[in-house]
Amino acid sequence: MDLPRTPSFRLDGKRALVTGASSGIGLGAAVALAEVGAHVVCAARGMDRLTEAVAAMTKASMSAEALPLDVASFEECRAACAGAPFDVVVNAAGLARHSAALETRPEDYDAVMGVNLRGAYFLSTEAARAMLAAGQGGSIIHISSQMAHVGGIDRAVYCASKHGLEGMIKSMAIEWGSAGIRINSICPTFIRTPLTEQTFDDPDKVKWIEDKIKLGRVGEVEDIMGAVVYLAGDASAMVTGTSLLVDGGWTAE
Ligand SMILES: NC(=O)c1ccc[n+]([C@@H]2O[C@H](COP(=O)([O-])OP(=O)(O)OC[C@H]3O[C@@H](n4cnc5c(N)ncnc54)[C@H](OP(=O)(O)O)[C@@H]3O)[C@@H](O)[C@H]2O)c1
Q1: Within a domain: residue 233?
Q2: Is there a domain that residue 168 lies in?
Q3: Are 157 and 112 in contact (CB under 8 A)?
Q4: Residue 47: strand pairing partners
Q5: Which domain of life is it from (predicted)?
Q6: Residue ranges around ligand 1 (CB below 6 Å)
Q7: pTM of the full predicted structure?
Q8: H helices of the chain, where?
Q9: In a domain, 199, yes or no
Q10: Domain for residue 205, yes or no?
Q11: Total domain count for the chain?
């Protein structure tokens, strides 16, 4: 009898672009993809931390290079994706400016939307444009949030950006599916990174988070790395237009 074959999780010979690769979840994604064999172009705005990250990856025998990129710039997204298409794009560039909805300033709204949604939008179109031109499929993965599925106090703008991202992904998946381009999101719960440092400094917030996460602990970057590898490669070949919640059960109730 012929047994079914487990798809490979390896990405040997593949090229990946990871934005936000100098810190937190993006750095975790870059390492995860490199460890399964991809060459990873690591992108962020600040070159100091990025260079340090790439040096550490190279020292650990991973194949990586640094690319300065502001995803809020359409021109920079276009330039980053020009030329040979990436097989995998992980967009982990993102920011948060939390405040009560009534206190949100237009400049905070524009900054969050400009990176989390507009940046994600045009990074996706430019990555897909190169894949389409080459007649090649690929996997585009956005680091969204559990806050794309629920609301959160002081998080109206952040939630709007992440809910918008989910709608964008569904629509792009419909448009690009026939070309073999998959686009999905990973929706983490609270993960310990520089972005959430302030939240974790507040014992009341930590208690709120630990009560809401059914697994009873906050997330670590390592909790996201397996999801990145899964969505990047053949194991998820039939998965597009959806989100993978890595939320410890936050949204289960
Ligand atoms: N940590 C969490 O609990 C959590 C939970 C759910 C979702 N997320 C999402 O996960 C993503 C990553 O968050 P994180 O916690 O890993 O944050 P982080 O540690 O603050 O890292 C953010 C990364 O994005 C880069 N970045 C920021 N703005 C950018 C831009 N305009 N263009 C290119 N790169 C940019 C930063 O480098 P430069 O500043 O040098 O550019 C840095 O490398 C975000 O989208 C966030 O919303 C995080």
Answers
A1: yes
A2: yes
A3: yes
A4: none
A5: Bacteria
A6: 19-20, 22-26, 44-46, 69-72, 92-96, 115, 119, 143, 145, 188, 190-191, 193-196
A7: 0.98
A8: 24-35, 47-59, 74-81, 106-113, 120-134, 156-176, 197-200, 203-212, 222-232
A9: no
A10: no
A11: 1
